[in-house]
Design goal:
Shape: globular
Organism: Mesorhizobium album
Largest sheet: 7 strands, mixed
Structural class: mainly beta
Number of strands: 34
CATH topology of the largest domain: Immunoglobulin-like
Protein name: Multicopper oxidase family protein
Keywords: Metal-binding, Oxidoreductase
Number of domains: 3
Distance between the termini: 11 Å
CATH superfamily of the largest domain: Cupredoxins -  blue copper proteins
CATH architecture of the largest domain: Sandwich
Length: 487
């Protein structure tokens, strides 16, 4: 697939609205280096997850930090990232959401040999899309991601967009033992066949119960990225009205979230704009209440005591410049369907958006062994279970001719939530349970509630074998994964 450098038309309308707003970053020279060179080193590390005064937790980290360093790249500028493996096991890096050449996708066996201990691999690609993405391992992903290997990747717009500040919150979920160390038991049968490995501590940029310092009158672009293994999130911003600008890195029509809750499944990202209209000196909670009866404070917006930055609020935010995504030709589309099957069935009724199953009254056998036990498959797509992180010789579920539009229906026949992630593409989300999806949304990770059916479409312009899987890591490892081919 050939990506060309893309520059957008002037955004004078937005800049006029936001006159006087300070830029969040300096203008880069037009004579910047032709290739942006970076290095990431995966190695054991330590992090004080529960506070500066707490005992450090042994982790695995990129460049010694949890989360890894924020990689800020430039739209249309080539990048070369060398990944050094100082772990005692194989690893790779998947550049989640980036439309890149198949050989750079980071799936062991399928797109590249794994990076053995003591060796390195250099990834080279040119990001065609601006937006919020992230990077993480795709080898022993359940353990490596669960021990801390994750980082944010931001591709800056070809033309600057005006906000007072541009912030990133990378959200991670940890299952800690009583001594503060990461608990063992990765890949248990219960996690594999139910909700996945949901932890007991959530951090924002590596810190629990974090304060975010803000000033009255600011307009902030806040990039939210869920890097948890399994935890779904639904965020409410007390006293504020966030407006969604982009989903999974792709700009959409600006809109307020339904029921004032931002739902973020594992691997999803949402860019929001927040006008800080709280009182100087005030404190406003950001609450995650996805799971019924288990709400907690994720972070606090802590206002300084200075007078408001501006006398009057800014006008409504303008849409971000769109990325060069090919528009699906629905009239001539090839139709494909994938059906999600398996998992343990729960007793009782799902309660609300986040009701967790409380019992194991039965199971979906569908020809499978006891789900998830002793590494057996717990899930299937169209009756086929692909387990693990990826390997050579994975037979494609379907094949698409390069350039055709694929109308893809995803049907969830299970009793569980599944964020389905497609590698190499972004999907135009058309409908959910027969109702059109508004706001022109494109996603690489589409969340399906139990029994949901979602229709989406994409242009198969990127050749190779591409993975499509649930991003609840336990679900993927236990069979909820498939491959499709573009020739």
């Amino acid at each position: 697939m050939h990506f060309r450098s893309n520059r957008f038309l002037s955004r004078r309308g937005f800049l006029a609205v936001a006159a006087g707003v300070a830029m969040s970053r300096p203008m880069r020279s037009a004579r910047a280096s032709a290739v942006d060179e970076r290095t990431l080193r995966a190695a054991p590390g330590q992090a004080r997850l529960t506070g500066a005064d707490s005992a450090p937790t042994p982790t695995w980290a990129y460049n010694g930090t949890v989360p890894g360093p924020v990689l800020r790249l430039r739209q249309g500028q080539p990048v070369r990232i060398t990944v050094e493996n100082s772990l005692a096991e194989d690893t790779t890096v998947h550049w989640h959401g980036i439309r890149l050449p198949n050989a750079m996708d980071g799936v062991p066996g399928l797109t590249q040999p794994p990076i053995a201990p003591g060796t390195s691999f250099t990834y080279e690609f040119t990001p065609p899309d601006a937006g919020t993405f992230w990077y993480h391992p795709h080898a022993d992903g359940l353990v490596q991601l669960g021990r801390g290997l994750a980082g944010a990747l931001i591709v800056e717009e070809a033309e600057l967009v005006a906000f007072d500040r541009d912030l990133i919150w990378l959200l991670q979920d940890w299952r800690l033992a009583a001594d503060g160390r990461i608990a063992g038991g990765f890949g248990s049968a219960m996690d594999a066949s139910m909700s996945g490995r949901v932890g007991n501590l959530v951090t924002v940029n590596g810190s629990a119960s974090a304060d975010q310092s803000v000033g009255a009158g600011e307009r902030i672009r806040l990039r939210l990225a869920n890097a948890a293994l399994a935890r779904m999130m639904a965020l409410r911003f007390e006293g504020h009205r966030p407006v969604i600008l982009a989903i999974d890195g792709q700009p959409c029509e600006p809109h307020e979230p339904e029921d004032s809750r931002l739902v973020l499944a594992p691997a999803m990202r949402v860019d929001i704009v927040i006008d800080m209209l709280g009182e100087p000196g005030g404190r406003y909670r950001v609450i995650d209440d996805f799971y019924d009866g288990l709400a907690y404070t994720l972070a606090t917006l802590a206002y300084d005591k200075a007078p408001p930055l501006r006398a009057h609020p800014l006008d409504a935010p303008a849409a971000l410049p769109r990325n060069p995504l090919p528009e699906p030709d629905l009239a001539n589309a090839v139709r494909q369907e994938i059906v999600l099957q398996g998992g343990m069935m729960g007793g009782g009724k799902l309660a609300g958006v986040g009701g967790m199953m409380s019992g194991m009254m039965g199971m979906n056998m569908k020809g499978m062994a006891m789900p998830g036990m002793n590494g057996t498959p717990a899930w299937a797509i169209n009756g086929v279970s692909m387990t693990g992180d990826g390997h050579a010789g994975m037979a494609p579920q379907f094949t698409l001719r390069r350039g055709v539009t694929c109308h893809l229906t995803i049907r969830n026949e299970t009793a569980w939530w599944h964020p389905m992630h497609v590698h190499g593409f972004s999907l135009s989300v058309l409908s959910r349970n027969g109702s059109p999806v508004p706001h022109r949304q494109w996603q690489d990770t589409v969340l399906l509630a139990p029994k949901d059916t979602v229709e989406c479409a994409f242009v198969a312009d990127n050749p190779g074998d591409w993975m499509l899987h649930c991003h609840v890591a336990d679900h993927q490892m236990a069979g909820l994964m498939t491959v499709f081919r573009v020739t």
